[in-house]
Amino acid sequence: MSGGPGSALAAPGPGALKPAPRSFSCLSDLEGSVSSGPRPCRPPGCDPRLRPIMVRRARSLPSSPERRLQNAGATGATCRPGCSRQHRVRFADALGLELAQVKVFNAGDDPAVPLHVLSRLAINADLCCSSQDLEFTLQCLVPDFPPPVEAADFGERLQRQLVCLERVTCSDLGICGTVRVRNVAFEKQVAVRYTFSGWSSAHEATARWRGPANMAGTEDVFAFGLPVPPFLLELGSHVHFALRYRVAGAEHWDNNDGRDYSLTCRSHALHMPRGECEESWIHFI
């Protein structure tokens, strides 16, 4: 039963049939049903355009050797296998620079050759050019005192001072010496205070422990080394030094009974047969 224009439509009852589902012939019908307004439909049987799942990958950049070959081909140059870069030669005058550089040295800039080196060069020259025995002079530091360890009162001095110089030797490498001390305690320090300027200025060198001096272990031996600057190899140069021993919170000195130990640079005349000199030179080589 239908009503008039102003009457409301009656709701369908429980037994009323539902409309059949609508079939969509193409994707446009589905899109039109969802959208608010009607959209034209494509021809029957049309499908959306398929896109391939696998996409071609972009070409990788060439490797370093390939790029070098490409660059060489572009510039007309050839690159040998294994070469890493192109070398270009440019001259200084093409860049506006001088072809030669001149440096002037002053007399004060000349290197100072140590005297012991000059002495050895003179000896070698005499050895090569002379057929007779060699006689030459050397300048070296010589102790102004006999070896203390050979003195008769060495043991008594060691008992009294607890530290005493044994002996000193000099060479091109420096001044070396040994010191004997009483083993009062395990912790001990031995140092050498020396001067090249008559005590106007002083320096110190630490002595190193070498080992026990006897089987009983009541005495220890320390070794030290002092440098030899070139000016010390001039005639009349002096080196003064004294020994300091610190042990058990006390300080003990050995300064040669107040006279200090000293070494003086002196000249010595040496005579050496040519045969012995040649053999020594061969062994030195």
TrEMBL record:
<keyword id="KW-0119">Carbohydrate metabolism</keyword>
<dbReference type="GO" id="GO:0005977">
    <property type="term" value="P:glycogen metabolic process"/>
</dbReference>
<keyword id="KW-0321">Glycogen metabolism</keyword>
<keyword id="KW-0597">Phosphoprotein</keyword>
<dbReference type="InterPro" id="IPR017434">
    <property type="entry name" value="Pase-1_reg-su_3B/C/D_met"/>
</dbReference>
<dbReference type="Pfam" id="PF03370">
    <property type="entry name" value="CBM_21"/>
</dbReference>
<feature type="domain" description="CBM21">
    <location>
        <begin position="155"/>
        <end position="264"/>
    </location>
</feature>
<dbReference type="GO" id="GO:0008157">
    <property type="term" value="F:protein phosphatase 1 binding"/>
</dbReference>
<dbReference type="GO" id="GO:0000164">
    <property type="term" value="C:protein phosphatase type 1 complex"/>
</dbReference>
<dbReference type="InterPro" id="IPR005036">
    <property type="entry name" value="CBM21_dom"/>
</dbReference>
<dbReference type="GO" id="GO:0004721">
    <property type="term" value="F:phosphoprotein phosphatase activity"/>
</dbReference>
<feature type="compositionally biased region" description="Low complexity">
    <location>
        <begin position="7"/>
        <end position="21"/>
    </location>
</feature>
<dbReference type="GO" id="GO:0005979">
    <property type="term" value="P:regulation of glycogen biosynthetic process"/>
</dbReference>
<dbReference type="GO" id="GO:2001069">
    <property type="term" value="F:glycogen binding"/>
</dbReference>
<protein>
    <recommendedName>
        <fullName>Protein phosphatase 1 regulatory subunit</fullName>
    </recommendedName>
</protein>
<dbReference type="InterPro" id="IPR050782">
    <property type="entry name" value="PP1_regulatory_subunit_3"/>
</dbReference>
<dbReference type="InterPro" id="IPR038175">
    <property type="entry name" value="CBM21_dom_sf"/>
</dbReference>
<feature type="region of interest" description="Disordered">
    <location>
        <begin position="1"/>
        <end position="77"/>
    </location>
</feature>
